[in-house]
Amino acid sequence: MDRSDIAKLAELARIEIADSTVDEVAKSITDVLTLVDQLQAADTDGIAPMAHPLDATQRLRADVVTESNRREDFQALAPAAEQGLYLVPKVID
Amino acid sequence: MHNLTIAELIQGLRNKDFSSVELTRHYLDRIARLDSRYNSYITVTEDIAMAQAKEADERLALGDAPALCGVPIAHKDIFCTNGVRTSCGSKMLDNFIPPYDATVVENYRKAGAVMLGKVNMDEFAMGSSNESSFYGPVKNPWNTNCVPGGSSGGSAAAVAAHLAPASTATDTGGSIRQPASLCGLTGLKPTYGRVSRWGMIAFASSLDQGGPLTRTAEDAAIMLNTMASFDAKDSTCVDQPLEDYTAGLNNSLQGLRIGVPKEYFGEGLEAQTGERVQAAIKEFEKLGAEIKEISLPHTDLSVPAYYVIAPAECSANLSRFDGVRYGYRCEDPKDLNDLYKRSRGEGFGEEVKRRILVGSYALSAGYYDAYYRKAQQVRRLIKQDFVDAFNEVDVIMGPTATSPAFEFGAKSSDPVAMYLEDIYTIATNLAGLPGVSIPCGLVDNKPVGLQLIGNFFAEGKLLNAAHQFQQVTDHHKQTAPDID
User: Fold this and answer.
1) How far is B365 from chain A (nearest CA, A)?
2) B366-391: pLDDT as tens digits
3) How confident is the model at residue A48 (pLDDT cuts 50, 70, 90)?
4) Less crowded by CB within 10 Å, the N or C end of chain A?
5) pLDDT digits 0-9 by tens, B11-31
6) Is B419 near chain A, with CB under 8 Å?
7) Alpha helices in B162-248 (DSSP H)
8) Cross-chain Cβ contact A77/B326 below 8 Å
9) Is the model more confident about B121 or about A52?
10) pLDDT one-digit tens code per residue, B397-436
11) Is the ipTM of this complex over 0.90?
12) Interchain contact A42–B (C-beta under 8 A)
């Protein structure tokens, strides 16, 4: 992991990383990836990936409304909302 | 009153030895007087607690008391509480007041329990020492120079310091069992899907599971009776019949087959901790159990597999924190991308950011098969080890943690050293199995834990074994010094 790898990753994850800490972050992520690389030695030929401990599949429910509209309750939590809309900096000039 | 177990409190309230108002006041006074030593609570909900206690006393007087009527408990600050700040130990959610209760919180409210407050934790449940909380580290009541474990460090410290009779907690890679081990408590991680995750802030959805931290196995059974439920709002909750986990506590252990995995006693285990654990397992022989050595050959791969799967799921789950809909937003964003990046850069702590970055890397184009798919294949191998073992034995036993509580700062600068702290607990989460940690002695005046791992939905059997052990030993009755 070099500085440009970290910059790319930070962009993908939408996380600002201060320039002064990039080297430190690169080192710690490299350490974690070194740990994780032990997986490559495992023989996994023909083993199906496991996503759920009980191999359960998603339950389906009847297509009926079960939730009430609580828009105002939820928008009250927003850093900036107005007239039912979430406010963000201008996206298109 | 603060030395009584949940079982004793239920009896005392029903016998009118004390009222819930008296009991709750007593705990609130203790928290006010003593918690500055431990920092176990983030929010104390005094007004709610007193109102719930008053209501509980009315129900007790009418003879209309549900299971936990009037019993005070604490909730880990990861469970959403209607109208009460739920921070998840993060600056990101320092201002978050949920408009609903988690199913677990609702279950306890319906059972008549009184909420004392919300307890401290590693940020977003990522950590094994409670040093990553935005609200500062929690101190271990047994030795305040040492960590309480994590991520449910506040839950464990509050119960160990007798600032709550029991607490809810969550376990993604050991976050209930390891703090139980380090603080001398009983901590149960149920089978994946046994307890609803609805309203429990998600870290790694295929691994997260709620459970109780208590002083005894009997209390864990009582707490699980209320906590476990089938919940249609959690699509991964398992529709399995509920049982009374206290019903089998007194069953005999005659003929119980105990498997001891040789991989759990390797070089990473501190010697005296290993001796205490071995001695505890021997104790089960006296209770009629048969002990045999087993092998879980993929144990070494559990930490590497976990540190792909958990960060990958974390990076997806935590993408919801964008500075737009709720939570922290940076000052004066210059455009939308700046808003996202700085809100997340400033709102998350170092460990959370590290895991999001690792997860984003593992899921990024070109790396998915090498990391995520590979880790999921290894996950199946790890599960298969357990399936094979449970063909031969009923319960697996070994250490919970590699050593007793370590000092602050000992591992916080080296993430990989901290990750290896969970080497004996992580495989259980990957496989989805239930596990419990119970105290089994002291090393340097600090507790160590024995871990019991059961087959899917065998919580009853685990608690039975733990309870029988606690009938013939008194490790669980040892309390931290200076808790008054």
Assistant:
1) 11
2) 999 999 999 999 999 999 999 999 99
3) very high
4) C
5) 999 999 999 999 999 999 999
6) yes
7) 177-183, 217-227
8) yes
9) B121
10) 999 999 999 999 999 889 999 999 899 999 999 999 999 9
11) yes
12) yes
Best CA proximity match to B166, nearest among B61, B278, B71: B71
- The rounded mean pLDDT for chain B is 97
B155 is catalytic: no
pLDDT at A93 over 80: no
CA nearest to B271, candidates B433, B416, B126, B403: B403
Domains and CATH numbers, chain A: 1-41 (1.10.20)
Nearest by CB to residue A86, choosing from B325, B338, B379, is B325
Query: What pLDDT was estimated at residue A92?
Result: 79
Q: How confident is the model at residue B64 (pLDDT cuts 50, 70, 90)?
A: confident
Q: What is the DSSP letter of A66?
A: -
Residue B265 in contact with partner chain A when CB distance is under 8 A: no
Q: CB atoms < 10 A from the CB of A27, how many?
A: 10
**Could you tell me the CA-to-CA distances from B279 to B132, B214, B276, B284, B394 in Å, in that order?**
34, 23, 5, 9, 19
Q: Which residue of A has its CA nearest to B365?
A: A12
Choose among B268, B259, B260, B258: nearest CA to B300.
B268
Per-residue pLDDT, B212: 98
Which residue of B193, B340, B354 is in closest CB contact with A54? B193
Does the annotation count B151 as an active-site position?
A: yes
Are B13 and B60 a contacting pair, CB within 8 Å?
A: yes
- Does A60 touch chain B if contact means CB atoms closer than 8 Å? no
Distance separating alpha carbons of residues B425 and B408, to the nearest angstrom: 21
- Residue B334 annotated as catalytic: no
Residue B162 Cα, gap to closest chain A Cα (Å) = 35
Structure tokens of B19? 């009222």
Share of chain B above pLDDT 70, in %: 100
Residue with tokens 């870290």: B203
Q: Which amino acid is at A14?
A: R
**B178: alpha, beta or left, given left = phi > 0 and alpha = psi -120 to 50?**
alpha
Provide the token pair at B84: 């009460």
B contacts of A52 (beta carbons < 8 Å):
192, 206, 236, 432
Closest partner residue to A16 among B342, B354, B379, by Cβ? B342
Q: Alpha-carbon distance B373 to B305, whole Å?
A: 10
Catalytic option among B19, B40, B76, B196 = B76
Angle at A45 between CA A43 and CA A50, to 5 degrees: 90
Task: Confirm whether pTM is higher than 0.95.
Answer: yes
